Amino acid sequence: MASHIRHGRLALTVSFCVQGVVFALLVTRIPALKDQYGMPDGLLPVFLAAVPVLAGVGSVVTGRLVRRVPPAYVLRWVQPVVCLALPAVAAGDRLWQAACGLGAFGLAVGALDASMNMLGVGLQRAYGRSIMLGFHAAFSLGGIAGASLAWLGAHQGWSLARLDVPVVAVVLPAAFIASRWYVVRTAEEPGSGHGSSAPGAGAARGLLPLCLVMTFAYIGDSTVSNWSATYLHSVLHGSEQLATVPYNVYMATTLIGRSLGDLTVRRFGAVAVVRAGAVVAAGGFAVVAMAPGAWVGIGGFTLLGIGLCVIVPQIFAAAEDDASVARLNVFNYVGFLVGSPLVGVLGEAWSYRGAMCVPMTLVLATLLYVRSFGVLSDRYGDGHERPRTADVG
Fold first, then answer.
1. What is the per-residue pLDDT across 123-139, written as a single tens digit (0 to 9) for each?
2. Between 20 and 30 A from 173 (CA), which of 14, 154, 167, 269?
3. 330 to each of 87, 213, 302, how far by Cα in Å?
4. CA-CA distance, 107 to 225, in Å (whole number)?
5. CA-CA distance, 78 to 88, in Å (whole number)?
């Protein structure tokens, strides 16, 4: 393996980790953000919904941009924008400042997520074996670090700016320095999409099963992110302190599952791993829905982390080119937008236990489309993956 490919893998791992830190710092301090700007209760959901919508726009634009510009260049310049948007949001006190900061964050994070995964898929092809789960494990590690810093800031009573500015002062230079080793793919390399036209209708239809699986996975993920604490406290009667545990456990098991996931994919293949992940995640939702008490519920959220964590990286890995990665990334945000209100509406109209059965059913529906991941077996063969090209540099 050429040294620049190894260096590119390490550099991209740093990028994923930095993104995990920044994203966690934003989403875990939303109550503090609301208080700082004095946002009315009805306005906060609008602001939060605008971020994934704009991120979807950023992903679509990136899919077009990489026909002319390598994704490494896109990632190199949008990651600083994402990092700087964090203190920009934290430093304001007027609603228009929050809108501008969150808008910049949304557009840039869509381009960032798309270009990061484009580079990850290209590096996996160069290695000829599964490495995508390792990149997403770095994101989970960064998320745990960011959430821990956010907890410390809230515990100490620090303002958003007091926490975010020093963190960004560390992670932004780290990401920018690492970016000099990103692997720049040329137009001739398989999957680059550089200089190509837009995918045709047939290609778009071929992506549909993977788009659906991406949506299902992120509906499940957003259910845990937005409702695990409320569910444990209000439905399973856990204490307020115990209600913070499920998401932390979920993130920890996500990190562990992704750290070990590449080895599992190499041993059993992508189809088997996605199938097992869907079954385990559905089982986790079933345990949560039927849990008699808080600790059993925490066990269910643990299963959810183990099951869901392997699915998303394999969806990106199944993409044939950069344009497909960008399209798939849009459905990340679709699932995020749908998941939280879906559970909330069903919980109020029916019951929160019953509401948990809906993401369970959707995750199980992944089994209908699991053969779409067979492209990875065809690409690398029976778990023993082989490179498509001799080099990528």
1. 999 998 999 999 999 99
2. 154
3. 26, 12, 27
4. 21
5. 15
> How far apart, in Å, are the Cα atoms of 2 and each of 16, 75, 116, 250, 384?
22, 22, 20, 36, 20
> Token pair of 387, please?
């490179």
Q: Contact, 258 vs 140, CB < 8 A?
A: yes
In angstroms, the first-to-last Cα distance of the chain is 11
> 13: closest CA among 264, 260, 181?
181
CA atoms within 13 A on the CB side of 318: 30
Q: Which two tokens stand for residue 201?
A: 């209708």
Instruction: Report d(CA 315, CA 309) in Å as an integer.
Output: 11
Q: Measured between alpha carbons, how far is 385 from 128 in angstroms, rounded to an integer?
A: 5
For 295, residues 6+ apart whose C-beta sits below 8 A from its C-beta are none
Tell me what pLDDT residue 272 has.
93
Burial of 68 (0-12, 13-18, 19+ CB in 10 A): exposed
b/e per residue, 316-337, with b = 16+ CB within 10 A? bbbbbbbbbbbbbbbbbbbbbb
Q: Report the percent of the chain where pLDDT is more than 90.
A: 63
Cα radius of gyration rounded to whole Å, the chain: 20
Instruction: State the average pLDDT for the chain.
Output: 88
| Three-state SS at 393 | coil
Burial of 345 per CB tally in 10 Å (0-12, 13-18, 19+): exposed
How far, in Å, CA of 189 to CA of 314, rounded?
21
